[in-house]
Amino acid sequence: MGCCNRRCGLIAGAVVGVLVAILGGILIPVGDNIIKGTVKQEAVIEPGTTAYENWAAAGVKVYRQFWLFEVMNPLEVLDYGAAPVVIERGPYTYMTRYLAKDNVTFHENDTVSFLLPNGAIFEPSMSVGTEEDNITSLNLAVAGAYSVVPPELHILIDKMIYSTNSSLFQRRTVKELLWGYNDPILKQFVGFFPDYNKTYDGYYNVFTGKDDITKVGQIDMWRQSSLGFWNDTYCDMINGTDASSFAPFVDKEEPLFFFSSDICRSVSASYEQTVNLKGIDVYRYSLLPSTLASPVDNPDNKCFCSNMKVTKNCTLAGVLDVSTCQQGQPIYISLPHFLHGSESLVKDVLGLNPNEEHHKTFLDVEPTTGFTLNFAKRIQVNMMYGPSDVITVLKNVKDFTILPLVWLNETATLDDETADMFKKELLSRIQMLETAEYSLIGVGAAIFLMCIIAYLIVRKSHNQSKVA
């Protein structure tokens, strides 16, 4: 009788072990649903959610580092048509995006509109010099007038250059070149980023994700529903978010799309690797070389090519002509030092050294929430000038030249306090739930196996005693 009770108890123990393991297995989908539900709820852009708190405020400090290109041989370029030789000066660092979104308005179609104030505060401790450092750079008025003014009126441009004692190159302070100065030729304020501190980026209208979490943060409108810069439906599309966040539960097999007003177009980034950022595993996404490839290699870029002469019949890779969104100014956007660009770009301007590690753009995205926790957006601003039989300072120029003016690295990363909070509020809870799930499965399986083994031993012992 006692032996029977023992075997019955072991069988019951095995059943309990199975039930515990089943409970652990049941908790996996239940726990996943709890996690997904919580993340989806907190990812919606509406007052009271984690996403809204990070989205509405200025949040993490964003810095823009500028490296200006100084022309070392301006006289040789003017007198003999020599290739410009440049060196980069910098970084000159500014804190930007420190102002909260303005005019935030929620709409009935589950979108929210806002304006993004621009602002820049110089950070001397993160810079190599002062804003008063002098740089020899391209004369923006001369290069701009060369492209904007019809050739038959170039004689007037030549007279204005002569009367103001101007030239193809000029010496200005870092502050003047970046943020603007009164130009003697144009009689107006010009610079790489004139009036930046007094402007807004926007109007933006984005989806809140309330009706469909996969659309959270996606841009419905920037100024208008279609860009209208490229005279093409495909190129004028606004795809994705502003890159500060994406829909939760990121699939690394799929590219991430985002729109950048700096380059007047949408781009995509592809998964590169998983990296650890302050104890948090994030997916690193980067731009592919095909992003600025020539239409010969990437036909999707055909509608971004408009100037057949400068781009050598659209065979030039690595630069994007954004003159259509810059009031006709001959501005070309590229990656720093013409990374992934045609070999001719580096040969026509000497002193450049493209480097993948230092010059690529990347985003570090936390896959569960879709939040971008670290990024480096790197772009270069270039300006074009070319030969002329009329404008004296351009008479020795042999061919169209795309000259680098400045490249910038816009960066932000979560601080230690935010990282600790992120790990505590989200990751630790997920890990605790996963530990509980797999612990129950493990404990249940162990109880089941021990009871079964003990049962077999007891039964064998009982059978042997009966035989004896």
UniProtKB/TrEMBL annotation:
<keyword id="KW-1017">Isopeptide bond</keyword>
<dbReference type="GO" id="GO:0009986">
    <property type="term" value="C:cell surface"/>
</dbReference>
<keyword id="KW-1133">Transmembrane helix</keyword>
<keyword id="KW-0812">Transmembrane</keyword>
<keyword id="KW-0813">Transport</keyword>
<dbReference type="GO" id="GO:0044539">
    <property type="term" value="P:long-chain fatty acid import into cell"/>
</dbReference>
<dbReference type="GO" id="GO:0016324">
    <property type="term" value="C:apical plasma membrane"/>
</dbReference>
<comment type="similarity">
    <text>Belongs to the CD36 family.</text>
</comment>
<keyword id="KW-0472">Membrane</keyword>
<keyword id="KW-0445">Lipid transport</keyword>
<dbReference type="GO" id="GO:0005044">
    <property type="term" value="F:scavenger receptor activity"/>
</dbReference>
<keyword id="KW-0675">Receptor</keyword>
<keyword id="KW-0130">Cell adhesion</keyword>
<dbReference type="GO" id="GO:0033552">
    <property type="term" value="P:response to vitamin B3"/>
</dbReference>
<dbReference type="GO" id="GO:0006955">
    <property type="term" value="P:immune response"/>
</dbReference>
<feature type="disulfide bond">
    <location>
        <begin position="264"/>
        <end position="325"/>
    </location>
</feature>
<keyword id="KW-0325">Glycoprotein</keyword>
<keyword id="KW-0333">Golgi apparatus</keyword>
<dbReference type="InterPro" id="IPR002159">
    <property type="entry name" value="CD36_fam"/>
</dbReference>
<dbReference type="GO" id="GO:0042953">
    <property type="term" value="P:lipoprotein transport"/>
</dbReference>
<keyword id="KW-0449">Lipoprotein</keyword>
<keyword id="KW-1003">Cell membrane</keyword>
<dbReference type="GO" id="GO:0034694">
    <property type="term" value="P:response to prostaglandin"/>
</dbReference>
<dbReference type="GO" id="GO:0007606">
    <property type="term" value="P:sensory perception of chemical stimulus"/>
</dbReference>
<dbReference type="GO" id="GO:0030169">
    <property type="term" value="F:low-density lipoprotein particle binding"/>
</dbReference>
<feature type="transmembrane region" description="Helical">
    <location>
        <begin position="9"/>
        <end position="31"/>
    </location>
</feature>
<feature type="disulfide bond">
    <location>
        <begin position="305"/>
        <end position="314"/>
    </location>
</feature>
<dbReference type="GO" id="GO:0034383">
    <property type="term" value="P:low-density lipoprotein particle clearance"/>
</dbReference>
<dbReference type="GO" id="GO:0005794">
    <property type="term" value="C:Golgi apparatus"/>
</dbReference>
<feature type="transmembrane region" description="Helical">
    <location>
        <begin position="438"/>
        <end position="458"/>
    </location>
</feature>
<dbReference type="GO" id="GO:0150094">
    <property type="term" value="P:amyloid-beta clearance by cellular catabolic process"/>
</dbReference>
<dbReference type="GO" id="GO:0005041">
    <property type="term" value="F:low-density lipoprotein particle receptor activity"/>
</dbReference>
<dbReference type="GO" id="GO:0006898">
    <property type="term" value="P:receptor-mediated endocytosis"/>
</dbReference>
<keyword id="KW-1015">Disulfide bond</keyword>
<dbReference type="Pfam" id="PF01130">
    <property type="entry name" value="CD36"/>
</dbReference>
<dbReference type="GO" id="GO:0007155">
    <property type="term" value="P:cell adhesion"/>
</dbReference>
<feature type="disulfide bond">
    <location>
        <begin position="235"/>
        <end position="303"/>
    </location>
</feature>
<dbReference type="GO" id="GO:0042742">
    <property type="term" value="P:defense response to bacterium"/>
</dbReference>
<protein>
    <recommendedName>
        <fullName>Platelet glycoprotein 4</fullName>
    </recommendedName>
</protein>
<keyword id="KW-0564">Palmitate</keyword>
<dbReference type="GO" id="GO:0019915">
    <property type="term" value="P:lipid storage"/>
</dbReference>
<dbReference type="GO" id="GO:0005901">
    <property type="term" value="C:caveola"/>
</dbReference>
